[in-house]
Fold each of these.
Amino acid sequence: MIDTHCHLNDEKYENVDEIVNNYLSAGVDKVVCASSSFSASIKAGEIAAKYPSVYYTVGIHPDEVDEFDIDRLESLVKKASNKLVAIGEIGLDYFHNKENKSEQIHAFISQIELANKYKLPIVIHCREAYGDTLDVLKQHPPKYGAVMHCYSGSLEYARQIIALGYKLSFTGNVTFKNAKNIKEVAQNIPEDSFFLETDSPYLTPEPNRGKRNEPKNVFFVAAVIADLRGISKNKLSEITDKNAIEFYKFK
Ligand code: NI
C-alpha cells in the first residue's frame, strides 16, 4: 500500500522513526513526503535520504508565495536525489488569501514550467480556486502528469480534470459522514484516474478523527472508497497502487 501524500517533514512529527515504523508494520511500503516551503522541501530530501520507503516532492505552496524564488527552487531540483518524484504542492488557495492572486498564479505557472523542464509531474493544491486552476492547467499544461491532491471538488470538475489526462487523490476527508460530494466523486470516476493519500498529520480519517493523522491510516481511506465502489480493499489498493506507481515512477 502506498500513501501518496503525507508530511513527515511537518513539525507535528517529533519522532519520524516511530511514524515510519508504524506505517511499515501496518503494511504501507512507500510514502511520498510532500513539501510546501523551502525548509519543508529541504527536510523532505533529508528524510527521503534516510528511509528507503520515503520519496519526496519539492515546491512552494500558494500560502507560502511570499518566499517564492524560482532560482532557489531549481537549485534544489538540480541537486535532488532520484527519490524526488514531483514538484508540489503548488497551486492556488483563495480561501486563505485572495489579495495576492496574481502572485499565486505566477508562482504556480513558474513551477509547472520547472516540472516540465525536469520531466516531473506536479501535485496541485486547490482551495476555492477551481476556475483559475483549470485555466492555468489549460494554458500552461503540465507535460508529465498532474494530480489534484485532497480532491474535494464536484464530480463535474473531476471529469474536466480527468479529460485533460490528470489524476485525483483522496484523503481522509472522503471518510467524513458529511462528505457526500467527495464520496460521489470517489464512487463514479474511472478506475485509472485516482490514488490514495493521508495528507497526514492533517485530515485524520474516521474513526480516528480528532487524533493526529499518520500514513498508516491510509487503510481507512481505502476501506471507504472500496465500499463505495463495491470492490474489496485489496482490489482497490492494487488498482490505486498501480496508478500511483505509473504516476510517480518510483526508482
Ligand atoms: Ni498536503
Amino acid sequence: MSRLSQRTYPVARRLAEQLTAALALPAAQQPHWPDPVRARAVAGLLHHARPIVTRDETARLHDRLATVARGEAFLLQGGDCAETFADNTESHLRANLRVLQRMGEVLGRAAGRPVVTVARMAGQYAKPRSRAVDALGLPAYRGDSVNSAEPTPAARRPDPHRMLRAHANAAVAMDVVRGAGAGEVYVSHEMLLLDYERAVLSVDTSGPEPRLSSGLAHFLWIGERTRQLGGAHVAFAELLSNPIGLKIGPDVTPEQAVEYVRRLDPHGTPGRLTLVSRMGHTLVRELLPPIVEKVSASGHEVVWQCDPMHGNTRTSANGYKTRHFDHVLGELAGFFEVHRRLGTHPGGIHVEVAGEDVTECLGGAGGITETDLPARYRTACDPRLNAEQSVELAHTVAELLCARERP
Ligand code: PEP
Ligand code: MN
C-alpha cells in the first residue's frame, strides 16, 4: 500500500491500521504460497502497480447503481466464470462484450430504462473452490492468478508471480474494454485473493467517511465461500469506497442479511451495496422473501440482483459440471415474482456467459443435450451460457420486466 504509507497524515495512518487489522482476521480460500519470502517480494512489487480503473469511473458506477437501487435503471453483470491468461485475447474479450451489449439492448428496450453494464472482466482470475483437491487428487485449480489449470502437481503449485501476470493481463483487458466501442462498460471481479486485492489502494475522502479506493476494478464482490461475518473479506470490503456486491446463498438468514447490510452500507447510501441472491430455482421463492422484507424494513436501499447460475449447478451423467437453462430461467422467474409481490425492485442479473458457441449449459432454443457437452466445453471453471442462450435469456428477462410493469 505504498500510496498510503508514503503519506503520514492521520486519516491515511488510521486506514492503514484498519487495513492491517482487517487482513489479520481469518481469511477463507487463500492459497498457501510455498515460498512466503517470494510471495512477500511479489506483494511489494504489486504495491507499485498502476491502477486498472480510475476513481472517477468508479464514482460514476456508484451513481449509476444508486439509480438501479431506486428502480430507475437495470443492472446487467456477466462474463466468464474464470478469465484465463490464455483467453485474454482481443477476440475473446470483444465476443464477451458483444454478447453483453446484445443482452443490454434487449433488456433496455423492454425496461424502457438505462442498463448499467458490468463485465466480469479485467481481473476475474481467482476462484474459490468447494474442495481443496480435484477429482484426480491434485490440488484444486484456484484461478490463473494462483496456479495453472494444467493437471500436474507442478502446475498446481501456487505461484505468487502469477499475481503480477494477473495485473498485467487485467491492464491489457481494460485497454480492450476502453477501445471496444461497447458503450459504458464497467469491470468487476470477485474480491477473493487478498494478497492481490490489497495492492493499488488509495485514500478516498470524498464519501461519508474516509475509505480506500481500489484501483483494481470498479466493482468488487464477496463470494459465497468468503462472506464470514468475522472474516477478512467482509472487514476489507468495509474499508473500500468502491461499490460492493455480496453473494447470498441458501444458508443466509434474514438476520444475517441485515447484519451484512449494516456492516457494508453503514451510511445508508443507495448503490453502495448489491445483494446477489443465488438460492437455486427450487428455493428462491421460499428463502428470498423474508430476506427482502427484513432488509427493506431496515431502511437500506440495496440493489437486488439475481445470480441464477451458482445455485443451479449439477454434474451431468457423462461427468460435466453443467446447468440447465430451464433451471436458470426458473430462478429468474422466482426472483421477479418475489419482488413483484413485495413491491421491491428486481434490480439486475449476474450471469456467466461466453460470446462464443460453447456447449457448457444444457437446453435453450438450440436444445443442447448431455451428449453435446463434450463438443465445445471450454470453461476453466463453471459452465457459461453461450451467445445464443445468453440472448434468449435476455429476452425472457425482458418479458419478466414487462410483465412487472403491467397492472
Ligand atoms: C462465481 O461467481 O464464480 C462464484 C464462485 O459464485 P459464488 O460465490 O456465488 O458461488
Ligand atoms: Mn462461477
